[in-house]
Amino acid sequence: MGLRKRSFCPKMSETKNWYVVYTKPRWEKKVSGLIARKGLEVYCPLNKVRRRWSDRYKVVEEPLFKSYVFVHIAEEDQIRIRLTDGVVNFVYWQGKPAVVRPEEIQVIRRFLKEYEDVVARPLGVTPGQRVRVKTGVLMDSEGLVVKVWNQRVYVQLEALGYELSAQFEKTNLEPVL
After folding, report:
1. Is 34 exposed, middle or buried (0-12, 13-18, 19+ CB in 10 A)?
2. Can you tell me whether residue 170 is helix, strand or coil?
3. What does DSSP assign to residue 2?
4. Which of 5, 87, 101, 139 makes a 20 to 30 Å CA pair with 109?
């Protein structure tokens, strides 16, 4: 009885998505270059900012999103990205690497082409906004933001016909669309 050598070729997906990669601080440009050298598509949005030195002004390019770059890869390439120097991890959403729509990447590109000195600020939760708890005992409960104070958010949770108020970390809440 002869042994037959079986070749194993994993099924490669041709579907590519844009993912967000979290980098070490101030490594955005370097990580972008390292990923590009691997033959993978990467986008590090650069913002033109006018900086003043003691004797002159100069326009420099700085990453728009601190510690983030975007990669356009197939799911199988995620390990190659993780093994890149300066990469901390992918940004996750609901337990999976967050996927960014191609239209959003195009909007960022067009915006940066048209404007200089752009400021990017993360959206926060605001009073009156509906949110969902992401983790913990109250996971998947929805409520209304009552107050935002420092790094804490106070949410009214409507459950069992009662209004319960609870204090949450901002990172434990997501907007309800």
Report:
1. middle
2. helix
3. P
4. 87
**pTM passes above 0.85:** no
Backbone torsion region of residue 138, taken as left when φ is above 0, otherwise alpha when ψ lies between -120 and 50, otherwise beta? alpha
Residue 33's SS3 state is: helix
| Residue 166 phi, psi dihedral angles, 5° rounding | -135, 155
Listing DSSP states for 91-141 in one string gives PEETTEEPEE-HHHHHHHHHHHHH-SS---------TT-EEEE-SSTTTT-
> What are the pLDDT digits (tens) for 55-111?
999 989 999 999 999 999 999 999 999 999 999 999 987 788 999 999 999 999 998
**What does the block give as tokens for 29?**
């440009």
